[in-house]
Amino acid sequence: MSSDLQSGRFATLTFDRRVAAPVATLYAAWTAPAARAVWAAPGPEVTVEFLESDARVGGREVSLCKGTGQPDIRVEAGWLDLVPEARTVGYEVVSQEGTRKSAALVTADFTGDADAARIAVTVQLASLAEDMAEGYRQGFTAGLANLGAVAERTMLLQRVIKAPVPVVWGAWMNAESLPKWWGPEGFSCRTSRIDLRAGGEWVFDMIGPDGTVFPNHHKYGAILPEARLDYTLHWGENGPKHADAWASFDDLGGATRVTLGMVMATAKEYHDAKGFGAVELGLQTLGKLARIVGAE
Fold first, then answer.
1. How many CB atoms lie within 10 A of CB 239?
2. Where would I find the beta strands (DSSP E) of 36-128?
3. CA 14 from chain center: how many Å?
């Protein structure tokens, strides 16, 4: 990390982080709102509440940074350019108690391959109410450390389904069809209750081919129709959370790229899941989704 202070309260700050995760996973952890909510807080004494989050070009993100005994810090940000696995450009305006404190242009460049990746962030900062450079240094240094840890326990699955986005979205966000395809080959779902909306939930058992019952509880967060849904996965009804997850749907001109991301609660859970074949089983689940919409 280096900085080049200019006249007055202007600064250009640079940050660099190498991560033991594929570049696609690092990019997803940087942009996906469900993942950003996990790593955004710079330390345990701070919480970040996301009021609005839309990770698309022209989309906006609004959050409140809350520290004990301090007025909330409001961050309004927006995405100006998104080049998957390569670059993002965005802006952010920081205010506190109604006073704008800073404005910044934030550019992130990504390089790497399927084994490891690097993110290089440039912040062009204008401090409006006071010198904010040191706060940005501390915040981005801590945030990128958190980002690296999150990316290293994030599982990312993708499949292109030869059906339009509304059809694929409809098969996912339908209380009758979702239980019919959810889960790997040979698994079935037994639903206790299902409410597919922001703030809703799905309480169900996944039943394996040998009859083993796996209790599940999905709690739904933000839902952007035909674009993205966020949810958390729990071991049984109101049980321990084992992942913060999201599904996104990209229009490929009549086909749909479905991305399923999961930030595991701990690195151990991530490695345990990979060890028992969670990637392959997850791809089987997306294959069943393709079949139910008639795309396979």
1. 12
2. 46-53, 60-67, 73-83, 87-96, 99-112, 117-127
3. 23
User: How is residue 108 written in tokens?
Assistant: 């992130």
Q: What is the CA radius of gyration of the chain?
A: 20
Check residue 72 and report its DSSP letter: P
**What does pLDDT average to in each consecutive run of 10 residues of the chain (296 residues)?**
56 97 98 97 92 96 94 97 98 96 97 97 94 93 97 98 98 98 97 98 97 98 97 97 97 97 97 95 98 91
State how far the alpha carbon of 6 is from the alpha carbons of 101, 125, 139, in Å. Answer: 18, 10, 20
In contact, 54 and 32? CB cutoff 8 Å? no
Task: Give the pLDDT score at 8.
Answer: 59
Alpha helix positions (H), the chain = 23-31, 33-39, 133-151, 165-172, 178-181, 267-275, 278-292
pTM above 0.85, yes or no: yes
Please spell the DSSP secondary structure of 159-192, one letter per residue: EEESS-HHHHHHHHS-TTTHHHH-SSTT-EEEEE
